[in-house]
Each structure stands twice: as C-alpha cells, then as structure tokens.
TrEMBL record:
Region feature Disordered, mapped onto this chain: 70-104
Composition bias, Low complexity: 81-96
InterPro entries in the record: Cu_Am_Ox_Cu-bd (IPR049947), Cu_amine_oxidase (IPR000269), Cu_amine_oxidase_C (IPR015798), Cu_amine_oxidase_C_sf (IPR036460), Cu_amine_oxidase_N-reg (IPR016182)
Domain of life, source organism: Eukaryota
Domain Copper amine oxidase catalytic: residue ranges: 384-795
GO biological process: amine metabolic process
EC numbers, comma separated: 1.4.3.-
Pfam families the UniProt entry points to: Cu_amine_oxid (PF01179)
Entry PTM: Topaquinone (TPQ) is generated by copper-dependent autoxidation of a specific tyrosyl residue.
Protein name: Amine oxidase
Example of a GO MF term: metal ion binding
Modified residues (2',4',5'-topaquinone): Y536
Cofactor: Cu cation
Length: 828
C-alpha cells in the first residue's frame, strides 16, 4: 500500500473504532471494556489486512523503485475504470531509452501570424521604405549627430480590435502586419519625434507610411535617451573630467577617468519641463573594467548636471557640481578651487579598495572559501516530458489542454498575449505588460528623487536571450523576438520567450474521506519572458491552469542601484548603520528604498466584448443590514445566533473608475457577461485578483504623479478605445509639466455597462535593500490572478485523468502511465 497512499481501508476503519470506543466506555465496566477492546482490535487488524490487500490489487500503479533512469521496463497498468469511459492512451515507444520527442513549433507560419512580433526581415523592410521616402537622413544609415533624423524604435502595431475579432470569429479579412516606428527628427528646422504606421509588410510595393502623430506634437526634449546623445554627453564632459583628475585620484583610490571610472546619466527624469532638458550624472567605478549596467552598484559621491536641450550640442553646458553632497558649485573650476583650498569635507577611499570590487561586490562567483553544503555537488531534482511536449505552437499561436492564445512582444512595452480562449470560449482579448515604474528615495546628490518608467527606456530594448536551465528548463520551446538598435540602425534577433509545461508537484485539488479518496496533480503551461533593463532583471510569467485560472507574475532580480555611504553625513544621526532612506549594506554603500510597480493591460472579453464590471463588497455588520441588501425585511429571523455577520453587497459599476486595495474595506473585482448565464442562472464572469504588497505612497502634489497615475490604482476599468492603447506614455516622464498619455485622462466618466471594457491592473512590491541584496537581489515577485467566477457549471477539470479510488466499488483511476526514459537534450 506504500504506493497507493490516497486510500487505506484499514486506517479508515480504525478511525471509526475510536469513536465507538469512547461511547462504549461510558456504559461498561473497565474489565468489560478491556476484553471488548482486545476483540475489536483483532477484528480491525484482520479486516484492515484483507481490505488493504484488496484495495492494493485494484489501485496499485507504482513505479518499481529499483528502476533506474536508464531503464525502459516499467510497465504501468494504466487508468482502470468500470464506471466511466476513460481509456488509457497508447504509450509511444522510447528510442533506445530516450524519451519520445517532437518539435512543437511550426515556425514557417511565424510572419503569417496576426500578432507575431516583427521579425528582422520585416524591420529591415520597414526601414528601407522609410529610407526611400527620405524619412531618415543619416549617412550610411549610421547616426552620428542629434541633428540627423533616424529610427529610435520599431515594433508590431497590432490590428484594430474590431478587425481582429471579425477575422477570428466572423470570417472577416485577415489584418495586415504593420510596424509602429518612432523617428527622432533632428534634421527638421524644429526638431521633434514622430510616430508612423508602416505597411503592410508583405512587400514594399504596396506599403504606406501613415503619420500617427502631428509634427511638433512630441517635443524633441521629451525624447528617450539613446546612444547618440550619450556619446555627445561624454564628449562634453571630457574637459571637466580632466580638470577633476587630481580630486578623483586622491578621493577614489588613485582612480583615473575613463580607465577606472564611468559616467552614469540615467538618473531620471531629465528635468521637470517639456521645453527644457537637464541630465544629472554621477561617477562610478568600472568594476568590470568596462561600462556595465551592473556598475551602478558602485556609484561615487561626485555628481553634476548637463543642460542639454535641443539638437545643437554647442549650446550645452555643465553646472551644479556636488562632491560628498556639498554644493552646488556653478562650474567644475569652482569645485576644484574649494577642494584645493581644503574648505570642504573630503573622502579618501583606502588603497586597493577599487580592486576588490569585482570579486567582493560585483561578480556572482561561488565563494570558494566556504565549504559546499551537504550533497550540493550532486544534481538537483528535475522535471522532464516523458512523452514529449503536450503543447503545439503554430507561428506564435499556442495550444495546450483546451487553452489557446497568441504570443506577441514589442521592445518598448514587452510581452503580450492576444485572443486567449479556454474550452472554445474567449476569456480575454489582450493581456499585456505596459510599464514598470520605480520611485527612489536617497540622500545623495545627483540621485535623489529618481523616477524611472521603464517603457521609456524599452522593456525589451536589448538582447534578452533566455538562459537555458536557469530561466527555463532545457526542454522548453523558445520563440524569437527582434528589437531595433537605434545606434546601429539595425534590427537584431534573440530567443527571448520560452514555453513549457511545468509539474507543480502538488495537488490542484484533493480530498481523502473515510470511504473514498481523490486528487489531481497540478500541472500548468508557462510562458516566460526574462528581460534586462540596465541593472535590473525582470521575469514575466503567464501560467495557464487546467481549471481555467490564468496567473500573471512579475519577478525582479539583478543588481540594486546603490548610493554612497558617508560616515560623516551631517544629516545622519548617531546610528551609522542606517538613515532615513535605507541601511548601510557594504563598505561605503547604502541601499536606497524604492518600489517596483508593474502596470498591465487586461482587456477581458468574457465570451464576447459586451461585458460589465461588478464590485462585490465583502462586508461585516448587523444581520438586519445584511438581509436588507436583498429584501425589505424588518425583523431578524430567530435562527441567527449572533447579531453580527459577514455578507456580500453587489455593485455594478455604471461609470469608469479606479480602485485601490484596502484591507479594511475589501472588494472582489469581477468582469461579467450580462447576456450569458451558467446552469444555475448566475452571470458568467472572471474575477481579477491582485496579489500586490505595495501601493503608491507619493502624494498627488508630487510632480511625477500625473505621469505615474497608473500606480495610484490596483484595478481600473475604462471603456475600450483604440486610441487608449496603453496606461502610460513613454514621453510623459520627460514632460511632467505637460503629460498627455496618463491613465487619469482615460477616466472620463463614460458608461461601462454591457460595453467593451478594459481593466488596467497594477501590482508591485516595496524594496528596502539589505545586505542580502549584495551582490545579487534574490527573486521577489508580485502578480494577479484571472479566476473563473461562475463561468462554469462545475469544477472545470473533470475531463482530465485523475486519481480516484472508492471503497466497495470498482472505481480506480489514475493518470496515464509511461515508460521511464532518459530526458531528451534537444532544444526546441
């Protein structure tokens, strides 16, 4: 019976006998009780032994424990039933002990898939069209100056929702594939940023270039940073760095620039006004002996600001230098003079300090001075596919266990899923990452008040190739995406998305009773997308469950952005281990507090696009108040034993609104279809369950709060509009005095009853860096569930094999068995 633990007849009878003994003892003498007990225990033993043997004959399916992973002789009995029609599928034959394998991908359909990310070929075609139309003015397509016009970003422009729905569900015309292209027009008399729709991308002969913005609508100073601007900034600062050379050598362990130091510019935002642009910069050690995003863990107390609006770099200048938080000094000469006159505090890093950074602080090599943990030299547990993949990918359309959906991605916003269906029903039209916001607080010149909105920098802006056996299991299938590199004016390819079935090795559901037992092992399909944005690594996951749940997860790892620890900081108190903004976490280093807020577009289509948004209030109060929510009752029925209770109050939202999680006033958020009901007459729906541990705490008066409006709400509901594609604008953090694409603008009081509604979901976590964040932040995460809410008539898993056994009836069922085999090394 060791291999059939879910049901043990002997144990169940023994439990019943305990109840019998308690009652019997009250009516008999101690002597009679002892005699009866011995007889009864003997009976229990005999019945349990016989019952256990019988149940074992019917239910035993265990794998021979002596079978090794090289063995092909495990002969399971399969799923047996006498009361249902489930049959055991034929077991594929192994190939010399290797697990059966098949490629789940049909990549020939990639570019013909409606939502597939743009390919390198399509990006080249779009750039050729723009080049031929004189939209690009660079020499040899290689930008060397901000006074040229060149492509900043390029990604798929999804079709209008109405057109896609007609194609997928009503035999409409297949939408063409178009690129959305951002062009930095520095060659114009009045420079600006323009966005264009380019395509269809089948060939250049019938392609069009359609403006999506008006000339001058996006101010040139609202542009994202790019390599051309950084090169211009470096050139401008070259003279200042030479003037600072003696100060740098004395302060920072005999360091020289640029051999040992780099300049970090991305301490956003670049000023407060759209018409201006100021870039704060901070010096840092090159721990890797080259410019690396990881090196912002090594920033130093020397900073300044570049006034750099427009495309004419001869008008740019530096100002507001700080050293050890002392300043501002109008020019670098003013700072050097004060330093040489010994009128300011100085820092002297110990000799050899910077040479220790690579090993001691930066690189994630195992500490060989420590002994290995017990058995750490042995391979860890693994999962594999004994029958090969159970999912199929046609282009970028995925099918698995009655789920189907399309995968997409773009370099600014990141991964997205479209046309998500379960058991033939549409659940959502679009589920997409939209933006990531971080707000830092620290006592450091050049770094205080940092606000990042990562879509501005590009969530999939750089090579995010997946790491096999780290990001994804070796058996996962991988899909390519492409991104446009503005400095090289060229598209690059990368394997950035992996898809695989995962074994949760736990129960999706279970129950063990006195007469029966059953359960289902939890398995789910995972779409995982790791991305790198400077120092931080994010991993986005979409998990599809057998019962119709969809779990969206955002995880963070990588290096923190640190600030310099000043032992004699006059703002710090007597406790030198922490200050108002975080803890000391290493030599000359503090970890500034910040948050990570992930914004998602969740365009639910429950059955179709005519949906409503219900808020189910979870309340507590008097019995009479609870009953009055449903009727005009005036008296409390006598069967209530308390005067207080919990109850639900139902509200259909009539107008667009945003909501914050509040555990003193809890709510359930449900998208329902008013026109379809389940077997019990209840409106079919899906619940949105934010699993967030953070909320926005910045006050409304903060200059960035309009641009960051999506972080104020955990769930927002609006009416679908094509022009409201995203919950933020990539330009607004660079034009905080004149934002134009923020979420609050969408909340214009439109009716949302029985309409095409869109939810915008924000989840996140607070990060207080501690010493455990060095050198690497170990994964932290947040997310949300999309959960069936009266969508089905019953639990939606009983069309799958499961474990079940019943005493006294010939019902014994198990999952399909398989021959033990060696996992394939093939990569898909």
């Amino acid at each position: 019976m060791a291999n059939n633990p879910g049901f043990d007849k002997g144990a169940n009878i023994s439990n019943s006998s305990r109840t019998y003994h308690v009652k019997h003892e009250e009516q008999t003498t101690s002597k009679c009780f002892m005699f009866c007990s011995h007889v009864f225990v003997l009976l229990v033993f005999v019945v349990g032994l016989v019952g256990g043997i019988l149940i074992g004959i019917f239910a035993y399916h265990g794998i021979n424990e002596t079978t090794s992973c090289q063995n092909q002789n495990n002969q399971g009995t399969g799923a047996k039933t006498s009361n249902n029609n489930l049959t055991q599928p034929t077991t594929p034959q192994t190939n010399n002990g290797q697990c059966p394998s098949r490629n789940p991908k049909d990549e020939t359909l990639y570019e013909s898939t409606v939502f597939a990310p743009l390919t390198v070929n399509e990006m080249k075609l779009a750039s050729d069209i723009l080049w031929q139309g004189s939209y690009i003015t660079t020499v040899d397509r290689t930008p060397r100056s901000l006074k040229e016009s060149y492509i900043l970003y390029m990604y798929l422009l999804p079709p209008r929702k109405e057109d896609a729905i007609k194609y997928f569900y009503h035999n409409g015309i297949k939408p063409g594939r178009y690129a959305r292209v951002h062009i930095q027009r520095g060659a114009e008399k009045v420079p600006d940023i323009m966005e264009y729709k380019v395509g269809p991308l089948g060939s250049s002969s019938n392609a069009n270039v359609i403006p999506l913005t008006r000339p001058g609508e996006i101010h040139f100073n609202s542009r994202p940073y790019d390599g051309v601007e950084v090169a211009s900034l470096n050139h401008l600062l070259d003279g200042d760095m030479k003037a600072l050379a003696p100060l740098i050598r004395e302060s920072f362990d005999n360091a020289t620039f640029p051999e040992d130091l780099f300049i970090f510019y991305f301490n956003g935002p670049p000023g407060l006004k759209e018409a201006e642009r100021e870039t704060r910069f901070v010096l840092g050690f090159r721990g890797f002996r080259m410019i690396q995003d990881a090196d912002i863990i090594n920033l130093l107390p020397l900073s300044g600001t570049v006034y750099n609006p427009g495309s004419n770099t001869s008008d740019w200048y530096t100002h507001s230098y700080y050293y050890l938080n002392q300043g501002p000094y109008r020019t670098v000469s003013d700072l050097v003079a004060e330093y040489n006159n010994n009128t300011i505090r100085k820092v002297r890093l110990p000799a050899g300090y910077r040479n220790k950074l690579w090993k001691k602080r930066l690189f994630f090599e195992r500490d060989h001075s420590l002994p290995l943990r017990e058995y750490a030299d042995r391979p860890g547990a693994r999962s594999y596919m004994p029958h090969g993949p159970r999912f199929r990918i046609s282009g970028t359309k995925v099918k698995w266990m009655d789920w189907s959906f399309h995968i997409s991605a773009g370099q600014l916003r990141g991964p997205a899923l479209f046309d998500i269906r379960f058991k033939g029903n549409r659940i959502a039209y679009e589920l997409a990452v939209n933006d990531i916001a971080l707000a830092y607080a620290m006592d450091a010149s050049g770094q205080n008040g940092i606000i990042y909105m990562d879509a501005t920098y590009g969530i999939m802006e750089r090579d995010n190739t997946i790491l096999r056996d780290v990001d994804c299991p070796s058996y996962a299938a991988a899909l390519n995406t492409s991104y446009w590199h503005s400095f090289f004016q060229k598209a690059f390819d990368m394997k950035s998305i992996c898809i695989f079935e995962e074994d949760g090795q736990e129960a999706l559901w279970r129950h063990v009773s006195t007469t029966f037992a059953g359960g289902m092992r939890n398995r789910y399909l995972v779409v995982r997308v790791p991305v790198v944005i400077a120092n931080y690594d994010y991993i986005f996951e979409f998990k599809f469950y057998i019962d119709g749940k969809l779990y969206t997860v955002a995880k963070a790892s990588g290096y923190i952005q640190a600030s310099f620890w000043d032992e004699y900081n006059p703002h710090a108190g007597e406790d030198k281990t922490r200050d108002a903004f975080g803890y000391r976490i290493s030599d000359y280093q503090t970890g500034p507090i910040h948050d990570h807020m992930f914004g998602f577009k969740v365009d639910m289509d429950v059955i179709d696009s005519n949906n409503s948004f219900e808020v189910v209030h979870w309340k507590a109060g008097d019995i009479l108040n609870a009953l009055k929510t449903q009727s005009n009752i005036t008296n409390v029925p006598p069967y209530f034993i308390y005067n207080q209770t919990r109850y639900l109050e139902y509200e259909t939202m009539r107008r667009e609104a945003g909501f914050r999680l509040n555990y003193d006033n809890q709510k359930l958020f449900v998208v329902v279809n008013e026109n379809t009901r389940n077997k019990w007459g209840v409106k079919r729906g899906y619940q949105i369950v934010p699993l967030s541990t953070a909320a926005q705490s910045l006050p409304e008066v903060h200059p960035a709060m309009k641009a960051l409006a999506f972080t104020k709400y955990h769930v927002t509901v609006t009416k679908h509009k094509e022009e409201e594609q995203y919950l933020s604008s990539i330009y607004d953090i660079n034009r905080m005095d004149n934002p134009k694409g923020y979420l609050d603008r969408m909340l214009d009081n439109e009716s949302i009853v029985n309409e095409d509604v869109v939810n915008w979901v924000t989840v996140g976590f607070l990060h207080v860096p501690t010493s455990e964040d060095l050198p690497m932040t170990v994964r932290v995460e947040s997310g949300f569930l999309l959960k069936p809410f009266n969508f089905f008539d019953t639990t939606a898993t009983f069309d799958m094999p499961q474990y079940s056994a019943m005493q006294g009836n010939d019902i014994v069922e198990n999952e399909p068995t398989f021959d033990a085999c060696v996992e394939s090394n093939r990569e898909y």
